[in-house]
Amino acid sequence: MSKKIIDVCGLACPEPLIAFTKAAKTADVTEMEISFDCAAAKDSITRSAAPMGWKIASIVEEHNQTVMNLVKVP
Amino acid sequence: MSVLSRLRSAFFRLRRGKAEAPRVPDGEVFLVFADTGEVIRAERILKAGGMDVKVMAPPPALRTGCDMVLVISLVHALRAVATLEERQLAPLRTAQAKDALLEPVSLFQTKDYGEWLMVRAANMKLTVEKSSGRIVNVSGGGCPDVPYLAAELVGKSILEADPAREGGQTLCGYALFLAARELRKLHASAKSGADA
User: Which pTM was predicted?
Assistant: First the structure.
């Protein structure tokens, strides 16, 4: 059980989603914090999280940067 | 000089050149339109008339604000422009790729992310999972129908999903349709390569 912190600021879609998907598939990762500044990434990660068994715990948007916290649904 | 007469003189120049020095005419002509809607309509009309026409990105010198041009072989260009003029859809301008030293720019950019493959067509990006062909991401655009199209397409197989059927009405919808068509081609060729 571990928390993964991912910073993909500066990367365009679909890279934030790909980074999320890779981490979400890692067996021992149960929490994730992902930071990005690609506007479309919030929607694409939100759309993909639930079908992959992840829940969004919080979203903080500040200065064009978004930080999303996600937890794996047990 | 009208578009049609410029094309006619280019065509006859090419034929004269052919008589003097036997060479295969391989020139292509760009048909430039005011907006994407006209490009889409012109492509449909010309294809319905049996003409082989490609949608491509315009070279910088030909950009008019519209992200797409039609490319047709010089030998068919005369008939194409006449057909379009009959339908009140004459191109704004035509340019010979050879004369203007212009290279057509592929409308598609492909990026391989390992397990995923992304195709960008004009302003839209479509990403699929290679193993399943499932659409994982739709991004780009700025058109009002993009969120709807993304919600409809993500999760579907690229073999089944068709952005044209899902109701795309804008440049983004059309670009997605082209990206999906290109991805289906790539997916099919990768699959046949793996099966061989």
Answer: 0.66
